[in-house]
Amino acid sequence: MKVDNFRLQLGKQEYIPIVIGGMGVNISTTELALTAERLGGIGHISDAEVCYVCDQIFSTSYTTRKRKKYSYNAGNPDKSDIYFDLGEIAEAQKMYVEHTISQKSGNGAIFMNCMEKLTMRSSSETLQARLSAAMDAGIDGLTLAAGLNLRTLDLIKDHPRFHDVKLGIIISSLRALTIFMKRAIRLGRIPDYIVVEGPLAGGHLGFSPDDWQAYELHAIVKEVLDFLKTENQNIPVIPAGGIFTGTDAVEFLKTGASAVQVATRFTITKESGLPDNVKQNYVNAGKNDIVVNTVSPTGYPMRMLKTSPVLNYSIKPNCEGLGYLLDNKGKCGYIDSYYRALEAREKDQRMQITDQTCLCTGMAKYDCWTCGDTTYRLRETTNKMSDGNWQLPSAEHVFRDYQFSEDQRIQKPRSEEKVNS
Ligand SMILES: Cc1cc2nc3c(=O)[nH]c(=O)nc-3n(C[C@H](O)[C@H](O)[C@H](O)COP(=O)(O)O)c2cc1C
After folding, report:
1. CATH number of the domain at 3-274+391-413, out of 2.60.40.770, 3.20.20.70, 3.10.180.10, 3.10.20.30?
2. Cα four-point dihedral sign 335, 340, 346, 349
3. How far is 330 from 355, CA to CA, in rounded Å?
4. Hey, where are the domains in the chain?
Protein backbone atom coordinates (compact mmCIF):
# COMPACT_ATOMS: atom_id res chain seq x y z
CA MET A 1 0.00 0.00 0.00
CA LYS A 2 1.19 3.51 -0.81
CA VAL A 3 0.29 6.99 0.34
CA ASP A 4 -1.28 7.48 -3.09
CA ASN A 5 -4.02 5.00 -2.16
CA PHE A 6 -5.35 7.58 0.29
CA ARG A 7 -6.78 11.10 -0.01
CA LEU A 8 -7.23 13.89 2.48
CA GLN A 9 -10.67 15.45 2.43
CA LEU A 10 -10.93 19.00 3.78
CA GLY A 11 -14.39 20.37 3.23
CA LYS A 12 -15.23 19.80 -0.42
CA GLN A 13 -11.58 19.58 -1.49
CA GLU A 14 -9.54 16.42 -1.87
CA TYR A 15 -5.75 16.41 -1.56
CA ILE A 16 -2.82 14.02 -1.80
CA PRO A 17 -2.39 13.39 1.94
CA ILE A 18 1.06 14.94 2.18
CA VAL A 19 1.50 18.22 4.01
CA ILE A 20 4.89 19.94 4.01
CA GLY A 21 5.13 21.55 7.44
CA GLY A 22 5.95 25.19 8.03
CA MET A 23 9.63 25.85 8.64
CA GLY A 24 10.57 29.32 9.80
CA VAL A 25 12.41 31.51 9.07
CA ASN A 26 11.83 31.08 5.33
CA ILE A 27 13.12 27.51 5.23
CA SER A 28 9.76 26.41 3.85
CA THR A 29 9.94 28.91 1.02
CA THR A 30 7.27 29.96 -1.45
CA GLU A 31 8.90 27.60 -3.98
CA LEU A 32 8.80 24.64 -1.60
CA ALA A 33 5.17 25.23 -0.65
CA LEU A 34 4.19 25.71 -4.29
CA THR A 35 5.70 22.35 -5.21
CA ALA A 36 3.38 20.58 -2.78
CA GLU A 37 0.47 22.63 -4.07
CA ARG A 38 1.27 21.86 -7.71
CA LEU A 39 1.44 18.15 -6.95
CA GLY A 40 -1.95 18.17 -5.23
CA GLY A 41 -0.78 18.23 -1.62
CA ILE A 42 -0.54 21.03 0.92
CA GLY A 43 2.48 23.29 1.35
CA HIS A 44 3.12 25.70 4.19
CA ILE A 45 4.82 29.01 4.25
CA SER A 46 5.62 30.43 7.67
CA ASP A 47 5.08 33.96 8.88
CA ALA A 48 8.02 33.87 11.28
CA GLU A 49 9.90 37.19 11.03
CA VAL A 50 7.74 38.13 8.05
CA CYS A 51 8.97 41.75 7.83
CA TYR A 52 12.57 40.54 7.68
CA VAL A 53 11.64 37.84 5.15
CA CYS A 54 10.01 40.44 2.91
CA ASP A 55 13.17 42.55 3.13
CA GLN A 56 15.13 39.58 1.77
CA ILE A 57 12.66 38.67 -0.98
CA PHE A 58 11.29 42.02 -2.09
CA SER A 59 14.08 44.39 -0.97
CA THR A 60 11.72 46.25 1.35
CA SER A 61 13.33 47.91 4.36
CA TYR A 62 11.08 47.16 7.32
CA THR A 63 13.95 45.93 9.47
CA THR A 64 16.30 48.81 8.70
CA ARG A 65 13.59 51.38 9.33
CA LYS A 66 12.64 49.81 12.65
CA ARG A 67 16.29 49.55 13.66
CA LYS A 68 16.83 53.24 12.86
CA LYS A 69 13.68 54.30 14.66
CA TYR A 70 14.83 52.62 17.87
CA SER A 71 18.60 53.08 17.43
CA TYR A 72 18.71 55.28 20.56
CA ASN A 73 17.82 52.16 22.59
CA ALA A 74 20.48 49.80 21.20
CA GLY A 75 22.60 49.54 24.38
CA ASN A 76 19.65 49.45 26.74
CA PRO A 77 18.65 46.12 28.32
CA ASP A 78 15.14 47.52 28.69
CA LYS A 79 13.40 46.92 25.36
CA SER A 80 9.93 48.00 26.47
CA ASP A 81 9.99 51.01 24.12
CA ILE A 82 10.14 48.82 21.03
CA TYR A 83 6.98 48.08 19.11
CA PHE A 84 6.18 46.68 15.69
CA ASP A 85 4.04 48.85 13.46
CA LEU A 86 0.83 46.86 13.00
CA GLY A 87 0.23 48.44 9.59
CA GLU A 88 3.65 47.30 8.43
CA ILE A 89 3.13 43.76 9.72
CA ALA A 90 -0.13 43.58 7.76
CA GLU A 91 1.49 45.05 4.66
CA ALA A 92 4.42 42.60 4.78
CA GLN A 93 2.17 39.64 5.47
CA LYS A 94 -0.10 40.51 2.54
CA MET A 95 2.84 40.98 0.22
CA TYR A 96 4.31 37.61 1.15
CA VAL A 97 1.03 35.68 0.99
CA GLU A 98 -0.09 37.30 -2.28
CA HIS A 99 3.30 36.58 -3.82
CA THR A 100 2.87 32.89 -2.97
CA ILE A 101 -0.84 32.46 -3.62
CA SER A 102 -0.68 34.21 -7.00
CA GLN A 103 1.67 31.50 -8.25
CA LYS A 104 -0.58 28.54 -7.46
CA SER A 105 -0.85 26.22 -10.41
CA GLY A 106 -2.22 22.90 -9.13
CA ASN A 107 -5.08 21.45 -7.15
CA GLY A 108 -3.36 21.60 -3.80
CA ALA A 109 -3.40 24.32 -1.17
CA ILE A 110 -1.10 26.83 0.49
CA PHE A 111 -1.36 27.13 4.26
CA MET A 112 0.52 29.41 6.61
CA ASN A 113 2.18 28.34 9.85
CA CYS A 114 1.55 31.00 12.51
CA MET A 115 3.30 30.60 15.84
CA GLU A 116 1.65 32.06 18.92
CA LYS A 117 5.00 32.17 20.74
CA LEU A 118 6.24 34.72 18.24
CA THR A 119 5.04 37.35 20.65
CA MET A 120 6.48 40.42 18.87
CA ARG A 121 6.16 42.70 21.93
CA SER A 122 2.33 42.82 21.75
CA SER A 123 1.29 39.23 21.40
CA SER A 124 -2.45 39.57 20.71
CA GLU A 125 -2.31 42.63 18.47
CA THR A 126 0.54 41.36 16.29
CA LEU A 127 -0.95 37.87 15.97
CA GLN A 128 -4.28 39.38 15.01
CA ALA A 129 -2.59 41.57 12.39
CA ARG A 130 -0.71 38.57 10.96
CA LEU A 131 -3.72 36.25 10.79
CA SER A 132 -6.12 38.87 9.41
CA ALA A 133 -3.70 40.03 6.73
CA ALA A 134 -3.00 36.44 5.64
CA MET A 135 -6.74 35.86 5.21
CA ASP A 136 -7.17 39.17 3.39
CA ALA A 137 -4.43 38.08 1.00
CA GLY A 138 -6.20 34.82 0.20
CA ILE A 139 -4.33 32.18 2.20
CA ASP A 140 -6.08 28.80 1.93
CA GLY A 141 -5.43 27.76 5.51
CA LEU A 142 -3.90 28.86 8.81
CA THR A 143 -2.06 26.38 11.00
CA LEU A 144 -1.91 27.67 14.55
CA ALA A 145 1.37 26.57 16.11
CA ALA A 146 3.77 26.95 19.04
CA GLY A 147 1.41 27.61 21.90
CA LEU A 148 -1.95 26.55 23.27
CA ASN A 149 -3.61 29.20 21.10
CA LEU A 150 -6.47 29.53 23.58
CA ARG A 151 -7.39 33.08 22.60
CA THR A 152 -6.29 32.95 18.97
CA LEU A 153 -9.71 32.16 17.49
CA ASP A 154 -11.21 35.12 19.34
CA LEU A 155 -8.73 37.40 17.59
CA ILE A 156 -10.14 36.56 14.18
CA LYS A 157 -13.74 35.64 14.92
CA ASP A 158 -15.06 38.79 13.23
CA HIS A 159 -13.02 38.33 10.08
CA PRO A 160 -15.23 37.68 7.02
CA ARG A 161 -13.18 34.57 6.20
CA PHE A 162 -13.34 33.08 9.72
CA HIS A 163 -15.61 30.26 8.59
CA ASP A 164 -14.22 29.85 5.10
CA VAL A 165 -10.44 29.71 5.65
CA LYS A 166 -9.21 26.28 6.71
CA LEU A 167 -8.12 26.45 10.35
CA GLY A 168 -5.84 23.92 11.97
CA ILE A 169 -4.07 23.55 15.28
CA ILE A 170 -0.79 21.82 16.11
CA ILE A 171 -0.90 19.96 19.40
CA SER A 172 1.44 17.47 21.05
CA SER A 173 -0.94 16.05 23.64
CA LEU A 174 -4.59 15.22 24.03
CA ARG A 175 -4.68 17.61 26.96
CA ALA A 176 -3.68 20.57 24.77
CA LEU A 177 -6.34 19.58 22.27
CA THR A 178 -9.14 19.31 24.81
CA ILE A 179 -8.33 22.77 26.18
CA PHE A 180 -8.35 24.26 22.67
CA MET A 181 -11.55 22.43 21.69
CA LYS A 182 -13.51 23.87 24.63
CA ARG A 183 -12.99 27.40 23.32
CA ALA A 184 -13.47 26.36 19.68
CA ILE A 185 -16.81 24.70 20.45
CA ARG A 186 -17.97 27.73 22.41
CA LEU A 187 -17.17 29.91 19.40
CA GLY A 188 -18.87 27.50 17.01
CA ARG A 189 -15.64 27.11 15.03
CA ILE A 190 -14.10 23.68 15.41
CA PRO A 191 -10.78 23.23 13.61
CA ASP A 192 -10.77 21.79 10.10
CA TYR A 193 -7.73 19.65 10.88
CA ILE A 194 -5.53 18.74 13.81
CA VAL A 195 -1.78 18.24 13.41
CA VAL A 196 -0.45 15.93 16.12
CA GLU A 197 3.25 16.66 16.40
CA GLY A 198 5.33 14.08 18.21
CA PRO A 199 8.70 14.35 19.92
CA LEU A 200 10.82 13.58 16.83
CA ALA A 201 9.84 16.74 14.92
CA GLY A 202 12.09 19.64 14.00
CA GLY A 203 11.82 23.16 15.38
CA HIS A 204 10.35 23.68 18.83
CA LEU A 205 8.86 20.73 20.68
CA GLY A 206 5.67 20.66 22.71
CA PHE A 207 7.24 18.41 25.34
CA SER A 208 9.44 18.99 28.35
CA PRO A 209 13.19 18.86 27.64
CA ASP A 210 13.57 16.06 30.20
CA ASP A 211 10.89 13.63 29.12
CA TRP A 212 10.26 14.05 25.38
CA GLN A 213 11.79 10.61 24.88
CA ALA A 214 8.99 9.03 26.87
CA TYR A 215 6.40 9.95 24.24
CA GLU A 216 5.59 8.21 20.99
CA LEU A 217 3.66 9.63 18.06
CA HIS A 218 1.51 6.57 17.30
CA ALA A 219 0.30 6.50 20.90
CA ILE A 220 -0.61 10.20 20.97
CA VAL A 221 -2.38 9.94 17.60
CA LYS A 222 -4.40 6.98 18.87
CA GLU A 223 -5.44 8.89 21.98
CA VAL A 224 -6.53 11.85 19.83
CA LEU A 225 -8.46 9.64 17.38
CA ASP A 226 -10.21 7.83 20.25
CA PHE A 227 -11.13 11.13 21.86
CA LEU A 228 -12.58 12.56 18.64
CA LYS A 229 -14.59 9.41 18.13
CA THR A 230 -16.10 9.60 21.61
CA GLU A 231 -16.89 13.25 21.06
CA ASN A 232 -18.46 12.52 17.67
CA GLN A 233 -16.10 15.00 16.05
CA ASN A 234 -15.07 14.10 12.53
CA ILE A 235 -11.91 16.18 12.23
CA PRO A 236 -8.97 15.03 10.05
CA VAL A 237 -5.93 14.15 12.15
CA ILE A 238 -2.47 14.72 10.67
CA PRO A 239 0.51 13.15 12.49
CA ALA A 240 3.93 14.82 12.24
CA GLY A 241 7.43 14.10 13.45
CA GLY A 242 9.74 11.32 12.35
CA ILE A 243 7.69 10.12 9.35
CA PHE A 244 10.61 9.41 7.05
CA THR A 245 9.23 7.15 4.32
CA GLY A 246 6.00 6.56 2.44
CA THR A 247 5.63 3.35 4.40
CA ASP A 248 5.90 5.22 7.71
CA ALA A 249 3.13 7.48 6.42
CA VAL A 250 0.93 4.55 5.36
CA GLU A 251 1.18 3.10 8.90
CA PHE A 252 -0.60 6.22 10.13
CA LEU A 253 -3.07 6.46 7.24
CA LYS A 254 -4.12 2.83 7.74
CA THR A 255 -4.97 3.47 11.37
CA GLY A 256 -7.20 6.49 10.93
CA ALA A 257 -4.96 9.47 10.20
CA SER A 258 -6.09 11.57 7.24
CA ALA A 259 -2.68 12.83 6.06
CA VAL A 260 0.88 13.23 7.33
CA GLN A 261 2.91 16.38 7.90
CA VAL A 262 6.57 16.07 6.98
CA ALA A 263 9.50 18.47 6.93
CA THR A 264 12.96 17.07 7.58
CA ARG A 265 13.31 15.32 4.23
CA PHE A 266 12.52 18.62 2.50
CA THR A 267 15.16 20.63 4.39
CA ILE A 268 17.84 19.56 1.90
CA THR A 269 15.81 19.99 -1.27
CA LYS A 270 16.77 22.58 -3.84
CA GLU A 271 13.67 24.61 -2.94
CA SER A 272 14.38 24.78 0.81
CA GLY A 273 15.57 28.19 1.99
CA LEU A 274 18.61 26.89 3.88
CA PRO A 275 21.91 27.85 2.27
CA ASP A 276 23.49 25.00 0.28
CA ASN A 277 26.43 24.58 2.66
CA VAL A 278 24.01 24.18 5.57
CA LYS A 279 22.08 21.54 3.61
CA GLN A 280 25.39 19.65 3.28
CA ASN A 281 25.80 19.82 7.07
CA TYR A 282 22.34 18.34 7.51
CA VAL A 283 23.11 15.37 5.26
CA ASN A 284 26.49 14.82 6.90
CA ALA A 285 25.02 14.84 10.41
CA GLY A 286 25.15 11.67 12.46
CA LYS A 287 22.81 10.72 15.29
CA ASN A 288 25.18 12.18 17.89
CA ASP A 289 25.34 15.52 16.12
CA ILE A 290 21.72 16.28 16.98
CA VAL A 291 20.63 17.72 20.30
CA VAL A 292 17.44 18.82 22.02
CA ASN A 293 18.33 21.84 24.13
CA THR A 294 16.73 24.72 25.97
CA VAL A 295 18.53 27.72 24.47
CA SER A 296 15.42 29.07 22.77
CA PRO A 297 14.03 32.09 24.61
CA THR A 298 10.51 30.82 23.83
CA GLY A 299 10.91 28.39 26.73
CA TYR A 300 10.23 25.42 24.46
CA PRO A 301 12.91 22.78 23.88
CA MET A 302 14.30 22.85 20.37
CA ARG A 303 16.11 20.24 18.28
CA MET A 304 19.13 21.37 16.31
CA LEU A 305 22.56 20.37 15.06
CA LYS A 306 25.19 20.72 17.78
CA THR A 307 27.35 22.62 15.30
CA SER A 308 24.76 25.40 14.88
CA PRO A 309 26.64 28.73 15.00
CA VAL A 310 23.86 30.09 17.17
CA LEU A 311 25.18 27.96 20.05
CA ASN A 312 28.30 30.14 20.16
CA TYR A 313 26.53 33.46 19.93
CA SER A 314 27.51 36.27 22.24
CA ILE A 315 26.08 39.01 20.05
CA LYS A 316 24.40 42.11 21.35
CA PRO A 317 20.60 41.64 21.38
CA ASN A 318 19.23 42.74 18.06
CA CYS A 319 15.72 43.66 19.19
CA GLU A 320 15.68 47.16 17.73
CA GLY A 321 15.58 45.69 14.20
CA LEU A 322 14.19 42.21 14.89
CA GLY A 323 12.65 41.71 18.35
CA TYR A 324 10.21 39.01 17.28
CA LEU A 325 10.51 37.19 20.61
CA LEU A 326 10.01 40.16 22.89
CA ASP A 327 7.16 39.45 25.28
CA ASN A 328 4.47 41.93 26.25
CA LYS A 329 6.83 43.63 28.71
CA GLY A 330 9.62 43.90 26.16
CA LYS A 331 11.58 41.04 27.71
CA CYS A 332 13.45 38.08 26.21
CA GLY A 333 15.58 35.51 28.04
CA TYR A 334 18.57 36.18 25.83
CA ILE A 335 18.71 39.87 26.83
CA ASP A 336 19.02 38.89 30.50
CA SER A 337 21.69 36.27 29.74
CA TYR A 338 23.65 38.67 27.57
CA TYR A 339 23.79 41.47 30.13
CA ARG A 340 24.56 39.01 32.95
CA ALA A 341 27.49 37.66 30.93
CA LEU A 342 28.62 41.16 30.03
CA GLU A 343 28.78 42.11 33.69
CA ALA A 344 30.61 38.92 34.68
CA ARG A 345 33.16 39.14 31.89
CA GLU A 346 36.78 39.71 32.85
CA LYS A 347 38.68 42.30 30.83
CA ASP A 348 39.79 40.99 27.38
CA GLN A 349 37.85 37.77 27.89
CA ARG A 350 35.48 36.44 25.27
CA MET A 351 31.90 36.45 26.42
CA GLN A 352 30.24 33.07 26.73
CA ILE A 353 26.50 32.63 26.85
CA THR A 354 25.43 29.03 27.09
CA ASP A 355 21.94 29.06 28.56
CA GLN A 356 20.10 31.15 25.93
CA THR A 357 20.61 32.31 22.40
CA CYS A 358 19.50 35.18 20.19
CA LEU A 359 17.06 33.10 18.18
CA CYS A 360 15.70 36.02 16.14
CA THR A 361 19.14 36.66 14.68
CA GLY A 362 20.03 32.98 14.53
CA MET A 363 16.97 32.05 12.50
CA ALA A 364 17.19 35.12 10.30
CA LYS A 365 20.81 34.34 9.38
CA TYR A 366 20.29 30.59 9.04
CA ASP A 367 22.68 30.10 11.98
CA CYS A 368 20.24 27.95 13.94
CA TRP A 369 20.22 24.58 12.24
CA THR A 370 17.02 23.23 13.67
CA CYS A 371 16.16 19.78 12.37
CA GLY A 372 14.09 16.68 12.97
CA ASP A 373 15.37 13.59 14.77
CA THR A 374 15.67 11.69 11.48
CA THR A 375 18.14 14.17 9.99
CA TYR A 376 20.90 11.58 10.48
CA ARG A 377 19.09 9.42 7.91
CA LEU A 378 19.10 12.04 5.14
CA ARG A 379 22.18 10.42 3.63
CA GLU A 380 19.97 7.44 2.75
CA THR A 381 17.95 9.72 0.49
CA THR A 382 20.52 11.07 -1.93
CA ASN A 383 23.82 10.51 -3.76
CA LYS A 384 27.29 11.52 -2.76
CA MET A 385 28.99 13.27 -5.66
CA SER A 386 32.59 12.98 -6.82
CA ASP A 387 33.49 16.32 -5.19
CA GLY A 388 32.37 14.93 -1.82
CA ASN A 389 29.17 16.98 -1.71
CA TRP A 390 25.71 15.48 -1.57
CA GLN A 391 23.31 15.94 -4.44
CA LEU A 392 20.33 18.08 -3.44
CA PRO A 393 17.08 16.40 -4.49
CA SER A 394 14.19 18.42 -5.85
CA ALA A 395 11.14 18.86 -3.65
CA GLU A 396 9.07 17.16 -6.34
CA HIS A 397 11.30 14.10 -6.11
CA VAL A 398 10.90 13.86 -2.34
CA PHE A 399 7.16 14.50 -2.50
CA ARG A 400 6.71 11.76 -5.11
CA ASP A 401 8.86 9.40 -3.08
CA TYR A 402 6.52 9.84 -0.10
CA GLN A 403 3.53 9.42 -2.41
CA PHE A 404 4.54 6.27 -4.25
CA SER A 405 7.18 4.37 -2.27
CA GLU A 406 6.43 1.01 -0.65
CA ASP A 407 8.18 -1.46 1.65
CA GLN A 408 10.30 1.22 3.34
CA ARG A 409 12.10 1.88 0.06
CA ILE A 410 13.56 5.32 -0.53
CA GLN A 411 14.11 6.37 -4.11
CA LYS A 412 17.27 8.43 -4.48
CA PRO A 413 17.25 11.15 -7.14
CA ARG A 414 18.79 10.29 -10.49
CA SER A 415 22.45 11.21 -10.33
CA GLU A 416 22.97 14.60 -11.94
CA GLU A 417 26.62 13.73 -12.56
CA LYS A 418 25.74 10.76 -14.74
CA VAL A 419 23.10 12.74 -16.61
CA ASN A 420 25.58 15.48 -17.42
CA SER A 421 28.44 13.24 -18.47
C1 LIG B 1 14.06 23.02 9.85
C2 LIG B 1 12.72 22.93 10.50
C3 LIG B 1 12.08 24.10 10.91
C4 LIG B 1 10.80 24.02 11.47
N5 LIG B 1 10.18 25.17 11.83
C6 LIG B 1 8.92 25.14 12.31
C7 LIG B 1 8.20 26.34 12.57
O8 LIG B 1 8.69 27.44 12.34
N9 LIG B 1 6.95 26.23 13.09
C10 LIG B 1 6.36 25.02 13.34
O11 LIG B 1 5.22 24.98 13.82
N12 LIG B 1 7.01 23.86 13.07
C13 LIG B 1 8.25 23.91 12.55
N14 LIG B 1 8.89 22.74 12.23
C15 LIG B 1 8.16 21.45 12.39
C16 LIG B 1 7.59 20.97 11.04
O17 LIG B 1 6.66 21.86 10.51
C18 LIG B 1 6.98 19.56 11.09
O19 LIG B 1 5.78 19.52 11.81
C20 LIG B 1 7.87 18.47 11.65
O21 LIG B 1 9.23 18.78 11.58
C22 LIG B 1 7.60 17.16 10.89
O23 LIG B 1 8.47 16.17 11.29
P24 LIG B 1 9.73 15.69 10.41
O25 LIG B 1 10.62 16.89 10.31
O26 LIG B 1 10.30 14.59 11.20
O27 LIG B 1 9.22 15.27 9.06
C28 LIG B 1 10.17 22.78 11.66
C29 LIG B 1 10.84 21.62 11.26
C30 LIG B 1 12.08 21.68 10.68
C31 LIG B 1 12.75 20.41 10.24
Report:
1. 3.20.20.70
2. negative
3. 19
4. 3-274+391-413
Nearest residue by C-alpha to atom 15 in ligand 1: 202
357 three-state secondary structure: coil
**Degrees to nearest 5, angle at CA 286 with 280 and 290:** 95
CA gap 233, 118 in Å, rounded? 30
Residue type, 35: T
Inter-helix orientation angle 395-404/30-38, to 10°:
40
Q: Select from 396, 380, 402 the least CA-distant residue to 247.
A: 402
CB count within 10 Å of CB 354 equals: 12
User: Which of 23, 193, 245, when mutated, tests ligand 1's pocket best, judged by the most ligand atoms within 8 Å of its CB?
Assistant: 23
* 366 backbone φψ class: left, alpha, beta (φ>0; ψ -120 to 50): left
Counting from 1 in the atom list of ligand 1, the atom nearest the Cα of 372 is 25
Kindly give the distance from the C-alpha atom of residue 7 to the centroid of ligand 1, in angstroms, as a whole number: 22
Continuous H helices in 76-149: 86-101, 123-136
Q: Do residues 292 and 209 lie in contact, with contact meaning Cβ atoms separated by under 8 Å?
A: yes
Residue 349: predicted pLDDT? 87
Confidence check: pLDDT of 35 > 90: yes
How many whole angstroms separate alpha carbon 114 and alpha carbon 192?
16
pLDDT band at residue 334, thresholds of 50, 70 and 90? very high
User: What's the 265 CA to ligand 1 centre distance in angstroms?
Assistant: 10
The SS3 call for residue 174 is: helix
Cβ contact 180:168 at 8 Å: no
Neighbours of 265 (CB within 10 A): 25
128, with CB counted inside 10 A (0-12, 13-18, 19+), is buried
Does the pLDDT value for residue 419 go beyond 70? no
Grade residue 405 by pLDDT with cuts at 50, 70 and 90.
very high
CA-based torsion, 5, 10, 11, 14: positive or negative:
negative
| pTM of the predicted model as reported, rounded to 2 decimal places | 0.97
